[in-house]
Structures are given as C-alpha cells and as structure tokens.
Amino acid sequence: MAVHEHPHRHTGFRLPSVRRTRTRTASGDAETATVTATRSYVFAGLRLLTGFVFLWAFLDKTFGFGYATGSGKAWIDGGSPTKGFLGGVAVGPMESTFHDWAGAGWADWLFMLGLLGIGLALVSGIALRLAAVAGTVMMALMWIAEWPPAKHLSDGSLSMSTNPFADYHLIYAVVLIALAAVGAGTTWGLGKAWARLPFVSRNRWLL
Q1: Which residues neighbour 185 within 8 Å (Cβ) at sequence distance 6 or greater?
Q2: Residue 121 in contact with residue 194, Cβ under 8 Å?
Q3: Closest listed residue to residue 119, CA positions, set 179, 57, 167
Q4: Which of 15-24, 53-62, 123-132, 180-189 is predicted least confidently?
Q5: Smaller CB count within 10 Å for the chain: N or C?
Q6: What is the predicted pLDDT for the residue at 207?
Q7: Which of 76, 102, 108 is nearest to 90 (CA)?
Q8: What CA–CA distances, in Å, run from 81 to 77, 78, 159, 179?
Q9: Taking all residues of the chain, what is their mean pLDDT, rounded to a whole number?
Q10: Is a pLDDT exceeding 90 seen at residue 22?
Q11: DSSP letter at 78?
C-alpha cells in the first residue's frame, strides 16, 4: 500500500486581522458620525423653520403685511392681536372665558411677547427649554379655543373639526419639546455659546 504525503494544513485557531478590525471600527465610527451630523442638521432646520412660523406671526400681527392681518388692522395701528381669534371662539369649556380675554391689553401683550420670545429663542438656538414650556402652554390654550373634540359649535352648526384630538397645535407643542430635548440649538445656532455663560451654567433650566 502506498503512502501519500498530504500538504500540511493549519487547522488551529487564527487571530483576527488587526488591520481588518481597525478598518471595520473606523468605518463604523465614520458612519455613526455621519448619522449624528445628519440628525443635528435635520433638527437645526426644523428649529429654524418653526422659529420662522412664530416670528412671522408676530411680525404680521404687528405690522399688518396683508396675510393673516390686513393692512390697517395691525397692532401698531391700534388693532388687537387677540380680539378676532378669542372673540370668535364658539365652542369648548372656556368659550366665555376667552370672550372675556379677547382684546384685553394684558392678553395682547402676553400673546405678542410669547410669539416674539419663542421665535427669537428658536431662531437663535438659545433658551429652548423656556421656549418649549411657553410654546406648549400657548398651543394648549389655542387647542382649547378651537376644541377639536366637538362635532358641533355652540349654535348647533358643524364644527368642521377634522380630528378629535391631534391637530397642528399639538404637533407644534411636540416639536418644541423635541427640539429642547435634543439640544437643537448647538447646530446653526448659539446654543453652545449660550450654555457656556456662567449664569446659564448655574441655572440649567435656561438652556
């Protein structure tokens, strides 16, 4: 019987290639960095757009550009930013209360300062937590004023509500909370510089 010699085979344990491991790690780190950067840019863009919504509402109601507020009916012309909306509330548990508030000086100033403050905070990227709280309160009151759960208004006519719960006021409130939660002011904003200020460092709720 002839004996054939077989080539020597290495069947033992082999260490993984250090070069391959390092390549995979670097690739994973680069991918993570790309995802993080993309996410920060998306939130920054959302922050700026939302800020413009609030700022535009303030400017239009103040100067009457002819969009939601007609010329001659602006705040600087003696018009009331709250009289039309609150005076027109026709449904909900706070209907009479909103009618009492409509056109009141304190209500006009509080509403307009809220729009301006929230808009500036979002555009600049500072005090997003305060903006989220103030904006959520404002959106909640506006949601109650429109009262989406109602199918009929107080006079019995159809309310034309398209959803009994979720409307754009709730969407804006959630967006404000999300922007504050992720610290969206650090990209395309002054969030980092704001956070380094001594009084902000001592009072983190101002972030």
Answers
A1: 47, 124, 125, 126, 128, 179, 191, 194
A2: no
A3: 57
A4: 15-24
A5: N
A6: 95
A7: 102
A8: 11, 10, 23, 27
A9: 90
A10: no
A11: T
Q: Six-digit token pair at 16?
A: 């993984």
Q: Which residue has the tokens 């709730």?
A: 170
- Whether the pLDDT of residue 2 is over 50: the answer is no
Q: What is the per-residue pLDDT for 33?
A: 86
Rg (CA), the chain: 28
Q: Is the pLDDT of residue 3 over 70?
A: no
| pTM of the predicted structure, to 2 decimals | 0.86
Q: Per this entry, what is the length of the chain? A: 207
Q: Strand ranges (DSSP E) for 45-176?
A: none
Q: How far apart are CA 207 and CA 201, in angstroms?
A: 9
The residue whose two tokens read 């019987």 is: 1
